[in-house]
Amino acid sequence: MEILFPALPLDHCSRWGSTKTIRVPEGFDYELYNRNDINRILGPKASCISFKDSACRCFGFLVSKKKYIFTIDDDCFVAKDPSGQEINALAQHIHNLLSPSTPFFFNTLYDPYREGADFVRGYPFSLREGVTTAISHGLWLNIPDYDAPTQLVKPLERNSRYVDAVLTIPKGTLFPMCGMNLGFHRELIGPAMYFGLMGDGQPIGRYDDMWAGWCAKVICDHLGLGVKTGLPYIWHSKASNPFVNLKKEYKGIYWQEEIIPFFQGVVLSKECTTPQKCYIELSKLVKEKLGPIDPYFGKLGDAMVTWIEAWDELNPSADAPNGAPVKKTEAAPKKK
After folding, report:
1. I need a surface site. Which of 42, 88, 178, 224 has the fewest CB within 10 A?
2. Residue 47: inside a domain, yes or no?
């Protein structure tokens, strides 16, 4: 698994250890990229990577060679559970990704693959094997991930509620994905984890992770993959400026009232058997259906194609053009 930060100031590193000297344990390594590296590696295709915005983290997804990715923001740290024990977020994400999801039928005991839980009476036996989990979406304690209007109304609100649960998000249900504590199976859904055009030179910001979440969820549903949310928790330490956030978000707040119905109505063709093919088809729909809202979406649709071109260039597949077809039965059935 690769751990990816969209920014890595030295004072942040010191919060994770007792010294400002970064020591890499045996068996681990690190890579540090800046904008010059992005331009050097991608050339003209670097235009699809956002500038001066946390959306640039998706460049790390692009160049990583690991099977799993864990991305976390630079103002997030280790949290503690109600017993006072430090939470191993990395281990929980791995557990979520290695256990199946149940997107086709909701289990009222939540995740049936957790210790002490199972499928309840009435759950179809034909669906108990589950499907491979592609995304593990974690939560946060302390500073909530609110939009600017909610921040302004509730400036002192903090999240202290720890819910010991993991749920599969049902097929056909969208969710607001937050990139500050996120794990995913790079080989299965990585090409759909594009955080869009945000920040410097763009009319919108703070919708990078949500855009990726909407795209990835539609593609997971089409390919028969699962998305989990809940544990693990991290500690979100810093509240961003709501007035700055409002300036970044205000167009997105209006646009999302049309964007979300668009994603709810997306139907991908049966020829879309890989995340790359799904994403290319989705990019065409974005330009066609969302383009009339604002010229930005035409530009975004083009960037989505450039992103896939860059992905295929850096991650060539010998199995099939535009990626190998997704295997829907990778997850092992529960053993009791």
Report:
1. 88
2. yes
- Say how far residue 68 (Cα) sits from the centre of its chain: 12
User: Does residue 322 lie within any of the structural domains?
Assistant: no
Asked if 209 and 153 count as a contact pair (C-beta separation under 8 A), the reply is no
Within 10 angstroms of residue 45's Cβ, the number of other Cβ atoms is 19
Per-residue confidence band for 321, with pLDDT thresholds at 50, 70 and 90: low
Q: Tell me, yes or no, whether 321 lies in a domain.
A: no
Q: Are 194 and 215 in contact (CB under 8 A)?
A: yes
- Is 108 domain-assigned? yes
Q: Is the peptide bond before 232 cis (omega within 30 degrees of 0)?
A: yes
Q: How far is CA 21 from the centre of its chain?
A: 30
Q: Which domain covers residue 67, as residue numbers? A: 2-256
DSSP string, 171-223: TT------TTEEEEEHHHHGGG----S-BTTSS--S-HHHHHHHHHHHHHHHH
Determine the length of the chain.
Answer: 336
Give the number of domains in the chain. 1
Amino acid at 110: Y
pLDDT at 7: 66
Residues 252, 253, 256, CA angle at the centre, nearest 5°? 70
Q: Is pTM, for the whole model, over 0.85?
A: yes
